[in-house]
């Protein structure tokens, strides 16, 4: 099990997600982002705009792989 925060995954807060795989943790982060979007949370909306710019620039795959590498390099939780 490994832990990453919303902020480490491109979000705007310190909420922690724990998962065995990067795909699981990315899914948790996305669901959290949807929840924050529905609440109209300004910091998260701003972070989503930054992610949108990355996607529109065609750099999402590179960003995703960088985050996967960061996850892979994390130590296992105790």
Protein topology:
Elements: E1 2-5, E2 16-19, H1 22-39, H2 42-56, H3 60-73
Antiparallel strand pairs: 1-2
Largest sheet: 2 strands, antiparallel
Distance between the termini: 8 Å
Anisotropy-based shape:
globular
Strand order in space, largest sheet:
1-2
SS content category: mainly alpha
Q: How many strands in all?
A: 2
* Rg, Cα atoms, Å: 12 Å
**Poorly predicted runs of 5 or more residues:** none
Percent of residues in beta strands: 5-15%
List the domain count as a whole number. Answer: 1
Give the number of helices.
3
Helix content bin: 55-70%
Return the string of H and E elements: EEHHH
Structural account:
The chain is mainly α. The chain has one domain. The chain is built from three helices and two strands. It has a two-stranded antiparallel sheet. The termini are close together. The model has no long low-confidence stretch (mean pLDDT 96).
Key words describing this protein structure:
about 80 residues; two-stranded antiparallel ribbon
Summarize the structure.
Helix content is 60%, strand content 10%. The chain has three helices and two strands.
